[in-house]
Amino acid sequence: MVQLQPERVEPIDPPATDRGGPTDPPDHRPEPPEGQAASGIWRIVAGREISLKVRDKGFAFSLLLTVVCIGLSLGAAVFFSGGKETVTVATSSATAEALAERAGELVTDDDLVLEVEVLADDAAVEAAVERGDARVGLVDDGTEIVGRGSTDSVAAGLLQQAHAESLLAANAAAAGADLADLQQGEPLDTRELRDGQVGDGTVRVAAIALAGAFYLCALMFGALVAQSVLEEKQNRIVEIVASLIPLRSLLLGKIVGSAVVASIQVAAMAAAAVSVLAVSGAPVALPQLGLTGVWFALFFAVGYLAVAALWAMAGALATRQEDLQHTATPVSVLLVIVIPVGLFLSGNLLTAASYVPIANVVAMPTRVLSGEALWWEPLLSLAVLAAFSFACIRFAARIYRRSLMQTRQRLTVRDALQIAD
Amino acid sequence: MLEIKNVVRRYGDRVVVDDVSFDVPVGEMVGFVGGNGAGKTTTMRLVLGLLAAHGGEVHWDGRPITADDRRRIGYMPEERGLYPKQPIADQLTFLGRLAGADKRSARDRALELLEGLGLGERSGDALESLSLGNQQRVQVAAALMNRPAALVLDEPFSGLDPRAVDAMSELLRANARRGVPILFSSHQLDLVERLCDRLVILADGRVAATGTPAELRATGEVRHRIRLGGSPEWLRARPEVDVLDLADDSALLRLRSWTTDDLLGEATRRGSVRELVEVRPTLSDVYREMTTDGAAAA
Q1: Spatial CB neighbours of B215, under 8 Å, sequence gap ≥ 6
Q2: Is B138 helix (H, G, I), strand (E, B) or coil?
């Protein structure tokens, strides 16, 4: 091998006249601020991520569409469930009519009306039931209930009750007793243990909605983070950026930027849902629902940081678009665990899940809604989630830094950990 | 001045940069040549701190280089790196802001650079809508965004047409004239020879040679071509020369114990001599010789 030791060549010509533009002398450039590199520079990255997204017509459109869809579907649900149900009872005799009128008085449900229709004869009553004009018919002088395929249980129950009353009155009179005496005593009292709180059905529906919202947003916006990281890795701009700022600042900026955009979407969805319910006058505990929305938005924002960090890691490990379905497996699994939390968990299991990171994004707001959670519980759970997100970001940053210069093939987490810095 | 001192980088057990040392003095253009996998890109990444060195140091102005020094190096990666779908002025502004400039001055600088490169009217266009030559110019603008104190360019000439090569050469020369040390890698040895003040030849992760183009050429072996009246076949039997190439009436020779006078004497004794010339090695010859030696030594 030839190893030369050439003479030192002195710097040549002094700088020529300044023409500006691409050849400015190096000493004119501004000094980069010292502290900015480490602390604040991620904000520039985050700001850029947010402004790119917000200016993107697709994002604005999907946000609008989501809000409109939520509004319409909730509005429709309230509209259709809010109307009164009318059950028609057809009769043909005065006795039957009196019985049906009494059954109508016995209705306790505000949303149910029992309407009595008097027809010419029993044949007309049966024909009306057959056609579906009447839900039930009372024939044979009020001694027989007819239904088409099956008998309406509510109407039949009320008619039976009215019939039993009239039998009792008749029998009491025959025995020389007063009906009022026979009915003396207190009726059964009703007491709801969770008075003034949201019913179990509403809590379940809300839990499913929260789980769905988290899953969809975390998947949709998270996948965008992975794609953006992969794109920067593929087209090598990451090398230029890494020569200017620490890679962890780039990662943090991307994660926070994405979290802000995703949280805007979630907050818009929550606000749309709560406002539609408020406007519609649906019988729900609005303050409780609003509080739940706020907690969910908070949990989402913090939990999403962890999710976005793991998505970024998936992007950094990949070298091509097709690799993402492999490298994103861990984060996909993590997201899937929120679905059963929304669908099935209750009681002690729900309480436990409300402290497990990522599951608690759905579980704790659900407990807030049902009124189970004590005031300090969401705070503690949020702190646990924040610690988890912090750990995820640190871990992802390590993988990210080591994977970005590896463009030959897809890496596993283990491969990436073995790469020297 | 940029000084690379005994840097080492391993991937697992494989040493890809092995004790590499060279300088890039102020105002000089240093050409970095070597085959694929010789370690050029890795060395450049070590200079920029994109990879950590496992040994040795990089110095700037006589002291170990800092992160802030590195931010003043304009860099162009081998596989071009910018956002294809975004407006060019926007991405240059972003890079300027990352380098520490405020939004307004970064924007002004980006527009000024694009104007200087003849792309002023396209500042709002997406990168991918430009021709490849123009995309390359934007890439150069990205490296110059920060009014760099040094330039490190990985294959800046690859994929350029001859006119774009000239424009890029002039741009680099102009920056060098202003005192910017420039390190660039290239496979185009003729270009490197024409442009560079000095070369660093890398083979298998080691510096095979450094020097000015003239110095490197001088280390190559001088050969001789002789053209005779008759067949030069007899030269094969002479132990005083090595026959490198033989044609009907001429031969390319490496002289062993003979001088040119000995050769001429013997040839004229055997018949007529029409031509005897010294064949000086080109830089490509020297490069091939050194990288082959380097590979053998490693």
Answers
A1: A4, A6
A2: helix
Contacts with B, A 13-72, CB within 8 Å:
13, 15-16, 20-34, 36-37, 41, 44-45, 48, 52
Q: Which of B50, B146, B143, B100 is nearest to A38 (CA)?
A: B100
Confidence of residue B31 (pLDDT cuts 50, 70, 90): very high
- Residue A142 tokens read as 């009020």
> Is residue A2 very low, low, confident or very high in pLDDT (cuts 50, 70, 90)?
very low
Per-residue confidence (pLDDT) for residue A341, from 0 to 100: 81
Q: Is A4 on the interface with B (CB under 8 A)?
A: yes
Answer whether B95's CB lies under 8 Å from B107's CB: no
pLDDT digits (tens, 9 = 90+) for B170-210: 888 999 999 999 999 988 888 888 889 999 999 889 998 89
Token pair of A231 as six digits? 């794109």
Is B287 an interface residue toward A (CB < 8 Å)? no
State how far residue B228 is from chain A, nearest Cα, in angstroms.
Answer: 35
Q: Give the per-residue pLDDT at A283.
A: 60
Nearest to A26 among B105, B141, B149 (CB): B149
- Residues on chain A touching B72 (C-beta within 8 angstroms): 26, 29, 32
CA distance B234 to B232: 6
Instruction: Judge: A22–B142 Cβ closer than 8 Å, yes or no.
Output: no
Task: Residue A212: count other Cβ atoms within 10 Å of its Cβ.
Answer: 16
Chain A residues within an 8 Å CB radius of B148: 26, 29
pTM here? 0.74
| Residue contact B98–A420, C-beta within 8 A | no
Task: Report the candidate in A159, A160, A184, A156 with the shortest Cα–Cα distance to residue A172.
Answer: A184
pLDDT at A14: 31
Classify strands A144-147 and B2-11 as parallel, antiparallel or unpaired. unpaired
User: Does the pLDDT value for residue A109 go beyond 80?
Assistant: no
Q: What are phi and psi of B105, to 5 degrees?
A: -70, -30
Nearest to B284 by CA among B201, B204, B225: B201
Q: What whole-number percentage of chain B has pLDDT above 70?
A: 98
